[in-house]
Amino acid sequence: LKEENASLRSKINKLQIFSETQADKMRKLERKLEENKIKEEKEAQDLEAMVQHVEQNLQLMTKRAVKAENSATKLKQANALLQVQLQNCRTENEALRSGQSASLAAVKQNADVALQNLLTVITNSRSSIKQLVSGAESLQLVADLLKSIDSISEVSQDGQ
Fold it and tell me: Coiled-coil stretches, from where to where (predicted)?
């Protein structure tokens, strides 16, 4: 009985040591489990923060894309308006060029008419100038004759 008692005590001691070892392992595993839970919670929070950041970036990019599309639409409209204005300017230039050709022809014709009129005036004025010079010469002759007559009359009055 003593031997059996000693054997049982030995088994009990072994079982207690085994039990303490198992309890230590259990505590270590519980600590590890707790650490893993904390780590997983932190990773989950980090992941959630990253997801929120990505969502914010996505919203910002969406806003930028909408803004860019609006800007592109406005630029397309402005471009279309400028194209119309350019076409109008080209048409106006064509009209001005054709009108300018017609204007140049009219100016040339007017210049030819003015030249003909000027030549006629020059010819007429030469004739008038010749008549005027001739008349001036005649007047000079008459003036000279009157001086001569005046001189003769003075000599006659002095000589009488």
Answer: 19-92
